[in-house]
Request: fold
Amino acid sequence: MTVETVVDGETRRTVDFLYPDAPAAERSEAEAFNDVITGELVMTIGSYVVRYGDRLVLFDAGVGSRPTGSFVGGALRSGLLARNIALDEITDVIFTHLHADHIGWATQNGVPFFPNATYRCDRRDWDYFMSPDYEIEPWEAASTHPEFDAAQVRLGPLADRMEFWEGDAEILPGISAIDAAGHTPGTNAFLLESDGESAMLLGDVVHSIHELLFGWRFPVHHDSHAALDAIARVRTLLVDRNIPCSAAHFTGMSWGRVLDSGDRFLWEAIN
Reply:
C-alpha cells in the first residue's frame, strides 16, 4: 500500500480567526506556518491517493473548480494526471466528511467526475447534509457557490452509487474508519494497515498540526465538545501506537508523528 498527496489548493486565515481561544504561548508556535506576506496561517486543501492491489482509492475530492472567498483551488485533476492517474482509474472515492472543500470534484456539471468509482461516506453525514431541511453554513456559502457546491447539488447525482458505513468500520481490506464525529455528524479518521505498517489520514478531525497537539477549538464544528473529545481520542491512538499521520489541511499536507514528552505533545516531522 502506498499513499500519495494530491494538492487541490489552499486557504489562508489568521490564527486569531481560526483559533480565537488558543493561548498566546501556544499560538506563537504556529507562526512558522504563516504566509510570509500576509502573516496568515496557510492551510492546504488536498486529497490522498492510496494504491494497493488493483485499487486506486481517493480520499476526499478537494474544493473543486469554482472556489471563491478565501479558497484557492482547482488543481486536483492536474495533480492526478501528473501522477499518471486517469480519472477513470479511480476505483473508490472515500469522503472523510461532506463539507464543500472535500467534495468539490465529486461531480462536475451533474456528472460523476470519477466515472468508474464507488463513492463512500458515513451515513450520518449523508443524512445530515442531504436532508431537505439542511441549510448551508455561512462559512461554506461565503467560500463557495452554493448553487454548484452545496452537498445536495454536488452529491445528488451520486445517490445511486453511494455506499455507506457508520462509525468504526472496515471500509475496504486494510482501510478502517475511526469514528471522530464532532466536526460534522459523520467525521472520520482513517487507519491504513499494510505489511505490518500503519498510517492515519485525519481528514478534518484537525485542521493544523497545532490543533492536534494542543486541542485548540476550531470555530465551525457541528459539536465542539464532541470534536475536542475526538481529537483527544485520536491523538492517544497516534501516540500509543506511534502511527504517522497527515491531514488534508496541514500546511503542505505534511506527515509526522505525535510524541508525548510527559508534559506536552510534540510533532516529529517525517520528510
